[in-house]
Amino acid sequence: MNHAKRNLIYFIFQTIFGIIALLLFLFGHFTDNHSKEMLSGIGIAFTIAGIIGIITNIKLLKDPKKAAKIEMAQTEERTQFIKAKTKSFVYTIMIYLESAVIVVTGLLGFRTICITFSTIVLLKVILSILFSSYYMKKY
Fold first, then answer.
1. Which pTM value belongs to this model?
2. For residue 45, what are the CA distances in angstroms to 18, 22, 48, 131?
3. Distance between CA 91 and CA 19 in Å, rounded?
4. Which of 83, 99, 108, 132 is 20 to 30 A from 51, alpha carbon to alpha carbon?
5. Are 43 and 15 in contact, with CB atoms under 8 Å apart?
6. What is the CB neighbour count within 10 angstroms for residue 15?
7. Which residues contact 50 (CB under 8 A, 6 or more apart)?
8. Which stretch of DSSP H or E encloses residue 117?
9. Listed residue (25, 21, 11, 96) closest to 57, CA to CA
10. Which positions, given as ranges, span the membrane (predicted)?
11. Of 13, 6, 10, residue with least CA distance to 70
């Protein structure tokens, strides 16, 4: 039940954000069409996804047995272990992919892109080391 309530709040904020983006699209004054088009896409996507999420979570809140079943599946130890392993593997693959992008952009002479990706990879590695040492001390 707690999971459904938390998601409902998330989707309400998402819908509000989408409506704000749509209002900016409709009534905002922009010097270029790119910003206006981007705002319309973000606004429509966030509003529709938020409304669908709100409807789904309201239905879930009306069925406490199903909500409890989903909550149990979310908090089950096996599910959490699978999520942690998946995130770890995706993180590792992304580090290698981003490193390959750094090498390719460096060889092609795209200095700004190369430095940007290098900074992102460096931040990821630093944060990984910091959180790893924190959790090793904690647990």
1. 0.59
2. 7, 10, 5, 33
3. 33
4. 83
5. no
6. 19
7. 11, 12, 13, 14, 15, 16, 17, 18
8. helix 111-138
9. 11
10. 7-27, 39-61, 88-109, 115-136
11. 6
